Amino acid sequence: MISELPEEYLFDLESEQRVLSSMLHSEDACIETYNLLTASDFYSPRNALLFELSCGLYLREIRPTLVEVLKEGHNLGLFTNPRDIEELKYIAEHYIDDENIKYWIGKVKDKSRLRKFVEFLKASYEILMENQGTDVEQILMSAEEKLTNLTALEIDDHVDGPADMANLGYDEVERRFLRYKSINELNKGLIPLDGLSTGFDNLNHITLGYKPGDLIILGAQTGHGKTAFALHTAKAIAVDSKKNVLYLNTEMSREQIALRWGSILSGIEHERIRAGNINETELSIMLNAYSRLRDSGFYSYPCPNLTPEKTVSIARKFKAQKNIELMIIDYVGRMDKYDPRVPEWQMLEQIVKTQKMLAQNLKIAVMCLVQLNADGTMQGARRMKNECDLMLKLTPIPREDFELSEEIKKYLNPNYYLIIEKNRDGRSGVSIPIVFDLQKQSMKDAERISR
Amino acid sequence: MTFGDEKKKKLYAETASLIADMGFRDKLSIEEMNFLLNLLDMVVVKQEQPRLIQTLKNWVNTNKGSEIDEIIKATLVTADFNNPESLEQCLQLVTELLESRGD
Q: Pairing state of beta strands A245-249 and A298-302?
């Protein structure tokens, strides 16, 4: 009965060609397709090959235009006769508008899933015919598992059975036990991180670093160190640890960001650098400072018209091409509204939800900077708190704390608190005293002077 | 997509396949084919290097098939379009060769 299905019901060559054509014409379409399809989703082996050629170029940061695909195919000996060119030209001419790409990808995906379903039916039928005397319950259970994997969303297509969960749990405990042992024996109590360094020893100690899939929210009032915090984090990860970081800035120019780095890496006051008021020795210090930036994994993307959708496509592109481990959005309040009628809190909620999903799907950490109100509260705070894994606030230490708090007197020149409002994996409600040098744009843990 | 966009894309696809077809049929050398394909991408897709286009126009209009013209062609077809620095050097060399030709 299955074999009676008309073959054309199982594929849609036009959709495959339209998807491939859009990859040849638009980088955005290329990003979408690369992330949502695999070569096995194409019915035609020729189309699957073109998809792989385009993805190969894209991963090497070469935009897969018709010309580049032609050259690549020719170099690899895959296109050798004029008929291959005609075929590729025919595909290239299946133009579509960029905004329709998801529709065509969906059609390709649906046919691919349908073919897998037919294969499942055929395999189940064969099992039934070959094992007529065996346990029916077992056959049904096995079929159900395969069918569940087919119908579940791709991203959630793994279901943990009791044994999986038990193994995972034991492995995690064993890993942590061995790590703890090695800390005591070898590292003299210094805790190795689970994720990326935060740039602050005390915050590292409490969080064990920013982990893949984490959404981190950092709130501060205007002029109270949001960008300095972002670049301090970027320095710890991209400059000191040489891991790749993508920094999206919605309000500063390329020059402003570059100058800030000069100050952070050289320790020379930002105002003097901006004015050019430095001597020749300092100029040579700056040269050394920028050579550290040159060797780092810092990628900056200034984009004044950032939207939540754009962050998704930019992050996917940089994950594929540069294998970024952290994306910083500086800052979400400046992002464009997809609908001007939507209230501010609802938009912020939507943004953080998108970023949390993005972090989990791409297995990167995402840090969103948000603005605090004048009274130190955060707009849409409760909803944001629900979504994020780590919520931090950067705020000046109140004057009364200097007079009344015995704890703060144990630190050398602290001027800001880094407050852990929420920490999914550990302690929260902790205020870490730090030193923020506004002039040098630098931040560090406040040193403890007595116990 | 506007009609103009579609027309431009069609023209690009037609030109790319014409160049590749000539390369596959050995009417152009591989170097010539790659140069023309790169140039097409440069003009239509990347829209960069206006100086290169102007220099090429100058050369094409005055090409007499002399020995220097042959050297200019050999220089151009080996240009690395993915390396802006090397492309700039190549352009400088072609400009000097055009000047030495006395045009």
A: parallel
Interface test with A, best of B17, B40, B45 (most A CBs within 10 A): B17
Coil, strand or helix at A134: coil
Query: Does B45 lie at the interface with A, CB-CB under 8 angstroms?
Result: yes
Residue A395: name the closest of A434, A345, A429, A446 by CA: A434
**For testing contact with chain B, the best of A23, A57, A66 (most B CBs within 10 A):** A66
User: Is 0.80 topped by the overall pTM?
Assistant: no
Rounded average pLDDT over A414-426: 91
CA distances to A90, A93, A170, A448, B14 from A86, rounded to whole Å, are 6, 11, 58, 73, 10
Q: Per the CB < 8 Å rule, is B34 touching A71?
A: yes
Which among B1, B34, B41 has CB closest to A97?
B1
- Cβ-contact A201, A231 below 8 angstroms: no
Mean pLDDT of chain B: 86
Q: Are A26 and A17 in contact (CB under 8 A)?
A: no
Amino acid at site A450: S
Helices assigned H by DSSP within A131-224: 136-151, 162-185, 201-207
Q: What is the pLDDT of residues B16-71, one digit of tens each?
A: 999 999 998 989 999 999 999 999 998 888 887 788 888 888 888 888 878 888 89
Residues in contact with A173: Cβ distance below 8 Å, sequence separation at least 6, in sequence order: none
Q: Quick check: A68 and B41 CB within 8 A?
A: yes
Distance, in Å, from the CA atom of A97 to the CA atom of A92, rounded to the nearest integer, reads 13
Note if the bond before A43 is cis, omega within 30 degrees.
Answer: no
- Which pLDDT belongs to residue A1? 62
Verify whether the Cβ–Cβ distance A67 to B17 is below 8 Å: no
Please give, rounded to a whole number of angstroms, the shortest distance from the CA of A283 to a CA of chain B: 27
